[in-house]
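Archive transcription. Copying these from loose printouts into the bound notebook so they stop getting lost. Printout 1 of 2:
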Amino acid sequence: MPIRYAGDAYNRAVGTRSAFAGLSADLEREGLPAMVVNDGDREEQDEIDVFLARFRPQASGVGSFNDVRWWRGVRYVRFSPLGTVAPPGTGNHGKRRANDLGYPYNSDTPAHRRAQVLAKRHNITCEGMGFREWWHWTFWGPLGAIASAAGGGNTTRPEDIMNAEQEKKLDAVLQALGAGGLQPGQWDDTIMGNTRDIEAQVNGLPDALKAIMAQVNGIPEVLADIRKRIGVSEAQVEVIADAVAKQIGTPMVKLDYAAIAKAVNDDAARRLMS
């Protein structure tokens, strides 16, 4: 199976697309999985939306995450626990050079370590290792022609793994469930994954649980713990956790399970969805 672009991800630069396809083919020849690109190019407006969903203008102070950026002559401080992003126009996603890869190329796995070696042939490095984002890989060679969008889904609008509106909702959910007290760097150490197709495996669960799952976009440890607390069978927990792990890999962030469990009722879900 050749390299795959999930959802709306794509690479328009021929050089970038060819380099990642070549690296993926090399990995497959050694019996390793093909690469899955969860996020590739980002257009200017998408970069702006994501940046403003995580940073706000602030003349002084460094905020809870000690993350200060300058953009268009204005000083910004990160307020979101969802991790850092480069100011619009400066990051390698916007320059059509970077891809965020899925498991097993998003964390410290044997496949990831082998990919680091093979990537040198293709002028690719795991740039994200320098800022705790092991899924972020960058091509440093000539971009070549900029082609039309390539990759799955609706190619008219590129998306982040979570777009700005989803990130705002997730921030609200974390606050509502008592998980807003994450310390600097805690969220940055996690790997966010798109698990919408896991929904099919939770049919019959309480509406509140499905609503929360949709909002937090499938964080395995959280989902598994909620299921245990509301009496879902261990078998169901294992099926769901296994399906998520196959897509994303390592366990995710540990949130305030007690607060989440307490919030699991239909009224809470309706409030979260509003």
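Printout 2 of 2:
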Amino acid sequence: MTNNRKSIGFSITESCYELSKTVTYMPFELKGDKNLEAKAEASYAMAGVSCVFAYVSIESFVNVHLLRTWGKAYNLRDKLQHMSSQLAEIPRNILREFPTEESLGRFIRHKSTQKKLLLLCDFLGIPKINEAEPELWKDFKDLLKEFRDYVIHPKFITEDFQKHMKALLVSNKLGSYSSVARKIIIYFFKDDPQGPPEWLEKNRYFELRGIIIY
């Protein structure tokens, strides 16, 4: 019996980025009489969603593109001796450091997102993002700190946490998470003649229209 079911292709980077971005602009519909408390709870949840999925979009992006770039170098392995030294330098260096896909896979599994982003710069032969875009790199490290301190290991009763969440309610900080992810991804398309993906500017799969607060 033939299995006619079609497999579904997933773009984890895109879907996570779209979710991180779309929760930023969801309007509140207030129905209950505990509006301030409920809005605070909703804001924390939305901030967590935006922060987590902004991070996941960056993580999935760098993992996928490391593997893709390694694959291109591997497919050129038999042609490197016939290429000019300049064209062959990057793929040769990639294969020297990671002779097998498994060796790169171990790096991807065990190294931090920061180290993987810097390795992708080497793979593509572009300036390291932390040196070329120091402000963006700082924003990225701040995103990781927020992810750790206020989502993964929140200390709800501390003065720092309370101060942070009160500031979140009256600022546009929520939108900064997806903005960091967007800028990180765009950096790796600066030399691409086709430019960055269109979905960075306009959601392609879905959007959320609002959140009801009881």
